[in-house]
Specification:
Two copies of one chain form a homodimer. The first copy, chain A, folds into two domains: about 230 residues, Cytochrome Bc1 Complex, Chain A, domain 1 (2-Layer Sandwich); about 190 residues, Cytochrome Bc1 Complex, Chain A, domain 1 (2-Layer Sandwich). Chain A has 16 helices and twelve strands. In chain A, a hairpin with a 5-residue loop joins strand 10 and strand 11. Chain A is α+β, with helices and mostly antiparallel strands. The longest helix of chain A is centred in the middle third of the chain and has 20 residues. In chain A, the strands form two sheets. The first copy, chain A, has a seven-stranded mixed beta sheet with strand order 1-5-6-4-7-3-2, sandwiched between helices. In chain A, helix 1 packs across helix 7, helix 9 crosses helix 15 and helix 10 crosses helix 11. The interface between A and B is medium-sized, with 32 and 32 residues.
Amino acid sequence: MMNFWKGTGRFTLMVMALLLTMVAVAKAEKKNGPDVTYFKLENGLDVVVIPDHRAPVVTHMVWYKVGAADELPGVSGIAHFLEHLMFKGTDKIAPGEFSKIVARHGGEDNAFTSQDVTAYFQRVAKENLPMVMEMEADRMANLKLLEKDVLTERDVILEERRSRIENSPSSMLSEQLGATLYQSHPYGIPVIGWMHEMAKLSRQDALDHYKKYYAPNNAILIVAGDVTPDDVRKLAETTYGKVERGPELKARQRPMEPPHVAPRTVTLEDERAGKLTWQRYYLVPSFKTAPRGDSEALELLMKIAVEGTTSRIYKALVVEKKLASSAGGGYSPNGLEYGNLYVYALPSKGVSVKQVEDEIAKIFEDIRENGVSEMELKRGQNSYIADYVYGNDSQSGLARRYGFALATGWSIQDIESYPDRLKAVTVEDIKRVAGKYLNEASSVTGLLVPKPKQTADMNATKQ
Amino acid sequence: MMNFWKGTGRFTLMVMALLLTMVAVAKAEKKNGPDVTYFKLENGLDVVVIPDHRAPVVTHMVWYKVGAADELPGVSGIAHFLEHLMFKGTDKIAPGEFSKIVARHGGEDNAFTSQDVTAYFQRVAKENLPMVMEMEADRMANLKLLEKDVLTERDVILEERRSRIENSPSSMLSEQLGATLYQSHPYGIPVIGWMHEMAKLSRQDALDHYKKYYAPNNAILIVAGDVTPDDVRKLAETTYGKVERGPELKARQRPMEPPHVAPRTVTLEDERAGKLTWQRYYLVPSFKTAPRGDSEALELLMKIAVEGTTSRIYKALVVEKKLASSAGGGYSPNGLEYGNLYVYALPSKGVSVKQVEDEIAKIFEDIRENGVSEMELKRGQNSYIADYVYGNDSQSGLARRYGFALATGWSIQDIESYPDRLKAVTVEDIKRVAGKYLNEASSVTGLLVPKPKQTADMNATKQ
C-alpha cells in the first residue's frame, strides 16, 4: 500500500507515485472502529462526526466531490489552481489571512487536490472550531478573486510544477506513464495540469469551476475530535447551514477506457536521473468499480507479491538473488473509476532490465499458477488489521479515511466493513485475481535511464 | 506521401495509416492550376467553382468544418455516425433514397469523416447538378431522424468497427499507436470511435452535433466540372441560399500536447498478424501550425528518406542489405493542429527488430549530419510537380484538394502557392528539419508480432 498523504505544507498537491488515483484510505473495522455519526443538512451538506476525546483538539475538513478528472478539456490544473485561490479571501477575510488566523490561534491548515476530490482541513483547539467552521463556510460561498491575485498565484503553481515535476526525472516519467496508461480517461492528465494549459488558466476559469462545484450539496464536512454530534450539528446549521445549494450536478461521468490490447513502454533518459529504474503499472478496477471481492483480493495479492520487505519480489530480487537494490509496489484502489497495480525495481549494477523483468514475470506466473500460501495470506491480512488499528490512533487519519472514501462514493458501511471483507479473502481469490488482472496488455512499463552528463567543458571541447 | 482517399463505398470512413490526420492534398501550381472562382453566399456558405470542361460531368461536394476531433468527451464516433445518418432522409427524401436517386440518374455518391472534416460528394451528369444541390441543401437543414433508424444504423457502425478495426491486427495497432502518440489532443481518439462509446451514441447526440455544426456558415461547397461560376452562383442561391445560418462557432480549439519527453513503444501480439512489422510515428506540426517552410521541407525530407522505392530506406534495407522485405513512410501535413512522420519496415526472416531500427537510425543520422544531395532534392521536387500535374487531371481529385485544404484553414493562395514553396526548399532546409523533428522523444514505435496460433486441438490436448 502506498501512502497517499504526501506533503505537509499548505497547498499540498497530491503527487502520487503515478499521480493517477489516490491510494488506500478506508480500512475501518466495525468492532474497533470509531462511533461515527452521519447526518445531512437541508442544503445537502453531508456531515460526519468522529468522536475522539483523548485531547481537546479537533480536525475539521471539507471535501468537495470534484477533482482534476472533472476538469473541462484544455483547462487542466484548474481544480488545483482553485484550491490555491481559495486562500485569497472573502469580504470578511483579507487575501492570505485565512491561514494566518488559524496559525495565530495555534492551529494548522492545509488543502490538497487529487483526481477525484479537493479537500481543505484545519486542526485546531476545540474552542476554535466555531471560528474555522465560520471561515470555511464563508469561503464556500463568498470567495473574492482579484485579477492581480489570480495572476500572482498562477506564477506560484507554474513554479510548483517546475520544481516538483519538471525538475524531477522520476516525476516526469510518472506523468508520462499516466498519460500512456490512460488512452481516454482523464486520469491520464496530471492533477497539477499540463504546463501550457496552466499558463492560460484565468480568473474566469477558476470562477466557473468554483460556482459549479463548490456548494454544500457537493461537499462533505468531517469533524473529528473532542466534540459531540450535537455540538457539530448546531455549529453546522449556523455556519454551513446558511450557504445556499449550488447547481444540481449529475453523477460524475468521465470517458472510460477502451479495452487495452497492447503493452506499452516509456523510456525516459535523463542526465539528472540517479539510478536505472524499472516500473510497471497495470490498469485495474478501483474498489468502486471492481466486482465485489476483487478489490479486496488485489490488496492482498499486491501485499504478498510486491509490498514491503516481506514481499516475494523483495525477497527474491533484493535479498536472495541480488538482482535489484530495491523493489516493491502496491495497489491503488481509490479512484472513482480505475485503480492500478504498481511494481518497481532498481536493477543492481551489471544486471539487465530483462533479467529483472523475467524474474518478476516468474513471481507473477507462480502466483497465477499456484496461488499463495495460507500463511502468506494470513500475514497480509494481519498486516492490514494492524494498519487499521494504528490508523484509528490518528485523528486526522480517521478524518481523511472517512472523507476521502465518502467523497469517492463509498458508503460508511463500505468503509466499516472493509477490514472484514479483507479477512474473507481466500487463497483461491488471490490466484483468481492474479490471473484476471496481472495482464500485460493493460500495462505500461517505464524505464528511467541515467544519461551520461554532458559537462560544459565537454561541450566546449566539442565546439 | 500516403494516399488519404481510401475506400470507395458509401459511408467511407477515412481510415488512414494511423487514423491521425489526413494526408497531403494541396499541391496546386499557380501557372498550371485550374482557374478557380471563390465567393461567399450571404448566409456564410463558401463556394468554390473549379472549371473542367472535358466532359459534361460535375463533382459536387459539401465540406463541413467539423470532424472527430471536435466531438465532446465520451461521445467518440458521433461525427462519423452522423455522416451515416445523413442518408436517413428529410420530409422530401425518404430514408435511404438519397443515394438511390443519385444512382438512378447515373451518378455516384459518397461521404467520409476525418479528424477535422466531414464531407459529402456526388458525381453526376451536368444536367443533374441542380437536383443534387437541392437535395444536399435540403439535408443540411431538414434531416429527419427516427429513433428506429438511428438504432439500426448504430448497429451498422458497430459492425463497421468490428470488421475494419477489431478484425485487423494492424488497424488495432494503428489505433493504439494513435492513442499513445497523443497524450492530450483528441487526434488520439479514433475517428470511428471507441466501441464502448459508439454503443451508447443516441439520436440526441447526433442531433446535437448536427444542429451545432451543419449549417451554411460552417460549410464549403465545391463544384468542379462542366459549369461556369455564374451557373453555380445562381443555383447556389436558390438552393443553399435558402438555408438559414447556424450558430456562430468560435475557431476550433482542441487541447494541445504537452512537450513530449520520452519515446514510447507499443507491442501488439496477435495470432492473426501476418508478418512482424515495425513502425514509428513522430509527432510534428502540420502545414497549418508549422513555421513557414518547415512543412514543405518535411514533405521532401520524407520523400527522400522513406517514401517509395527510390527512398534511402528502401534502397538500404530492402535492396542492398536485404534486412527488410518492405520499408517506407511519409509525412501527413494536413491536420488542423498536428501532422506526423511515419516510417515502417517488415524485417526479413532472421533479422531482428534492433538491426532494422539501427539501420533506420543510421539513415536519419546521416541526413541530420550531412543533409541530402542536390540531386535527391531535385528528384523529390519533380516528383511532387508530377503528382500535381496528374492530380489536375482528376476532377474529383481537384475538388478534394480544394475542399479539404479550405476546410482545414488553408487559403486558396496557400493551395496554389504550395508547389512553388516546395520548389523553394533547399538542402539546408532539409538538414535543419531533420534535426528539428526526427526526435525520438516525440515518437512512438509499434511492433506487430505474429503469435503462434493455438489451435483447438492444442487446447484440447492441454486440458
